[in-house]
Amino acid sequence: DQQVKQNSPSLSVQEGRISILNCDYTNSMFDYFLWYKKYPAEGPTFLISISSIKDKNEDGRFTVFLNKSAKHLSLHIVPSQPGDSAVYFCAAVTGSGNTGKLIFGQGTTLQVKP
Amino acid sequence: NAGVMQNPRHLVRRRGQEARLRCSPMKGHSHVYWYRQLPEEGLKFMVYLQKENIIDESGMPKERFSAEFPKEGPSILRIQQVVRGDSAAYFCASSPGLGQGNQPQHFGDGTRLSIL
Predict the structure, then answer these.
(1) pLDDT under 70 in chain B at which residues?
(2) What is the greatest pairwise CA distance in chain B?
(3) Does B39 touch chain A (CB under 8 A)?
(4) Among A49, A89, A93, beta carbon nearest to B43
(5) Per residue in A96-111, pLDDT tens?
(6) H helices then E strands: how many in chain B?
(7) Res A31: pLDDT
(8) Which residues of chain A, if any, have pLDDT below 50?
(9) Which long-range contacts (CB under 8 A, 24 or more apart) does A39-47 make?
């Protein structure tokens, strides 16, 4: 049962333009959503998160939007830079109980062309 | 670098051998998580530990896999009698609290396990 889905395996954008990465989820009990960026042969690096009680969170070039009714979130990167080329993972966590396990999507490979 | 340290970075084992993967959390972090990434897939949760306690092992295979986080020393993920299907990247993460959105988990660079 894939609770977090990233349906686009890859995305290619031109440098300076906007990158939009999408993520859908099925579990309405998720409390936080996070985006991680991963380069080859490295571990995931935390980018930005959003609480389920918010609909937008912004940090520099990165903005995450949450649409709870559609169970959908997206990560916007603007302007995109070649160094942003990486695999982006959407993840979700439930805040109840005593577990902090992250449920990850399959990832989207972003390529930013110079 | 005070990040999450995993070793070894690469580990090669023959079928039937044992694999031991180590993880030292970030300074000040007492919560450790192990995840596994199979080729072309996302990371899958395996186990969540605090010092000397397993909090959630719902993602851990019932046989051959075990994890510990002793009072002193790193967390260890142990795989006994490895099989080809165990070949994957194993990532460790740590957090100071429950690892919720305002206290994100920080990941190490992983151990890539190859089974011959």
Answers:
(1) 1, 97-102
(2) 42
(3) no
(4) A89
(5) 544 588 999 999 999 9
(6) 0, 11
(7) 87
(8) 97-98
(9) A39/A86, A39/A87, A41/B109, A41/B110, A42/B109, A42/B110, A43/B4, A43/B6, A43/B91, A43/B93, A43/B107, A43/B108, A43/B109, A43/B110, A44/A89, A44/B43, A44/B91, A44/B107, A45/B107, A46/B104, A46/B105, A46/B106, A47/A75, A47/A88
Which residues are CB-neighbours of A36 under 8 A, at least 6 positions away? A44, A45, A46, A47, A88, A89, A91, A104, B107
Best mutation target among A102, A103, A104, A109 (most B Cβ atoms within 10 Å) is A102
**Tens digit of pLDDT for each residue in B17-36?**
999 999 999 988 889 999 99
Tokens (6 digits) for A107: 């990832």
Longest dimension (CA), chain A: 46
Among residues B61, B8, B101, the alpha carbon closest in space to that of A102 is found at B101
Name the DSSP class of A79.
S
**Alpha helix (H) ranges present in A1-114?**
none
Mean pLDDT of chain B: 92
Q: Does B12 touch chain A (CB under 8 A)?
A: no
pLDDT at residue B11, rounded to an integer: 98
